[in-house]
Design brief:
By secondary structure, this protein is of the alpha/beta class. The protein has three domains: 4-264, Purple Acid Phosphatase, chain A, domain 2 (4-Layer Sandwich); 268-353, no CATH class; 357-422, no CATH class. Helix content is 35%, strand content 24%. The protein has helices at 20-23, 27-50, 70-85, 100-105, 159-166, 198-201, 285-300, 319-322, 327-338, 357-363, 366-378, 381-394, 401-405, 407-422; strands at 4-10, 55-59, 90-93, 114-116, 123-129, 132-140, 178-184, 208-212, 218-221, 226-230, 246-253, 256-264, 268-276, 305-313, 315-316, 342-349, 352-353. The chain has a six-stranded mixed β-sheet with strand order 4-3-2-1-11-12. Strands 5-6-7-8-10-9 form a six-stranded mixed β-sheet. Helix 2 runs parallel beside helix 3 and helix 7 packs across helix 9 (327-338). The protein is globular.
Length: 429
């Protein structure tokens, strides 16, 4: 009978992370986010216990700082103790935020169900189920906060190396059907953060690489064959970390690819929204329109609370009014006062003044000539696409395929921008 293995893969917990930038806008929400990270960690542990996984893996940056507080240590160890009570071992490595040296210098002792993989060299372990060897585990963490750019953090971490290292204590290690690697790395995307070649990882005899450092989900080489995977952070900390955040439940089976189940863990989601106010006749209509957009976005998120950055777009006669001092801030405060589950950290005006193209054509002046010329160019979609391709190639870039589908929309936006500038508008960054 084919054997299977199920484990939890989490990374980038960042326990103790501050939210300094938000505190100036809202002390209440800054405090709320401080509690969101430990809540997310509790959900990680809940997921492991509820699914009765074989073991848990934490791939670095457990803490946000190399000098974690006593309270942060207690929180993390309490989770490990919950795993211990459920009979679940844990394997962890350090990241650049919580390097190995800081753990060595602090007075603590991991529970006996937890193993810290070393940082000075590759380390290995053998997971047994009911006495039978089931999975080889190999990995390495950060020793200090920096990593030599010419050193591959994955060097020496292979299935064969694990068997050799464990041969003395576990002569039957070679019988384990599965092997899992654990690293905190930036792949070759970030040469300052323990680079490694993802293609080479697939040649090391590991069935799955549990990775940390990148704060977004990333699966390599494909969703159908996930062999090197970043689980992302468990809770978004700012507007750069939008979307759902969580961990993976990984199932390995003999003769088949790994199966991934994503478990959302974030208490608060971060989102960017564009709200088209072209149909709004008065400023008072804008907050209601924004709230409807917020509820739609919230309905797709796996959490009840949301921090948002809203950009107002569209062609509108309200454009000049929105430019007046204090109007946007008053609207932002109105939104935040309406529903405590949402917090708008910034309201950005990217609207354009309303343009009466029919009137401009009737005037017969330069804008009329421009509109006629633009209409002629837009009639030939193939020519527009070719022009865009040449522009991208001239800058040494490949044109995104989405541009072809949106060519008419992009042309319309460019047309409106030129007309806005001709009428005295300003280019907005």
């Amino acid at each position: 009978m084919a054997k299977t293995l199920t484990f939890l893969h989490a990374a980038d917990l960042h326990l103790g992370a501050p939210f300094r930038g938000l505190r100036a806008l809202s002390k209440t929400w800054a405090q709320r986010l401080l509690s969101a990270i430990p809540e997310a960690y509790d959900r990680v542990i809940d997921a492991a216990v509820a699914r009765n996984v074989d073991f848990a893996v934490f791939a670095g940056d457990i803490f946000d700082s190399s000098h974690a507080s006593y309270g942060d240590y207690r929180r993390f160890f309490a989770g490990l103790e919950r795993l211990r009570a459920a009979g679940i071992p844990a394997y962890l490595c350090t990241g650049n935020h919580d390097p190995y040296t800081s753990w060595q210098n602090d007075l603590f002792a991991l529970p006996d169900n937890a193993m810290m993989l070393p940082a000075s060299k590759p380390g290995f372990a053998l997971y047994r189920r009911e006495g039978e060897p089931l999975c080889l585990i190999g990995g390495r963490g950060f020793y200090s906060q920096a990593w030599p750019v010419d050193e591959d953090i994955a060097e020496g971490i292979t299935r064969r190396a694990a068997i050799r290292a464990l041969r003395e204590t576990d002569p039957d290690a070679a019988e384990a059907p599965f092997a899992v690697g654990v690293l905190h790395t930036g792949f070759d995307l970030d040469l300052q953060k323990a680079p490694t070649d993802p293609a080479k990882l697939l040649t090391r005899g590991m069935d799955y690489w549990a990775l940390g450092h990148l704060h977004k989900k990333l699966v390599y080489p494909s969703e159908a064959d996930p062999r090197a995977v970043f689980s992302g952070c468990i809770q978004g900390r700012d507007i750069k970390e939008t979307g759902e955040r969580g961990c993976f439940i990984v199932t390995l089976g003999e003769g088949r690819s790994a199966q991934l189940e994503f478990v959302p863990t974030a208490s608060v989601a971060w989102e960017r929204l564009e709200v088209d106010i072209s149909d709004c006749g008065t400023v008072s209509e804008i907050p209601d329109l924004i709230m409807r957009a917020l509820f739609r976005a919230n309905g797709k998120a796996h959490c009840e609370e949301m921090c948002v950055r809203v950009t107002l777009v569209g062609s509108t006669p309200l454009h000049e009014l929105l430019e007046r001092p204090g109007v946007l801030e008053d609207l932002r405060c109105q939104i935040n006062d309406g529903y405590p589950e949402f917090f708008c950290d910034a309201l950005i005006d990217a609207t354009r003044r309303a343009i009466d193209k029919a009137a401009l054509r009737a005037e017969g002046l330069f804008p009329s000539v421009f509109l006629s010329t633009a209409r002629g160019h837009r009639a030939d979609v193939a020519d527009e696409v070719a022009y865009l391709q040449e522009e991208f190639m001239g800058k040494g870039m490949a044109m995104p395929s989405s541009c072809v589908k949106r060519v008419d929309e992009l042309a319309s936006q460019a047309e409106d921008l030129v007309l806005d500038l001709l009428q005295g508008g300003e280019v907005r960054q």
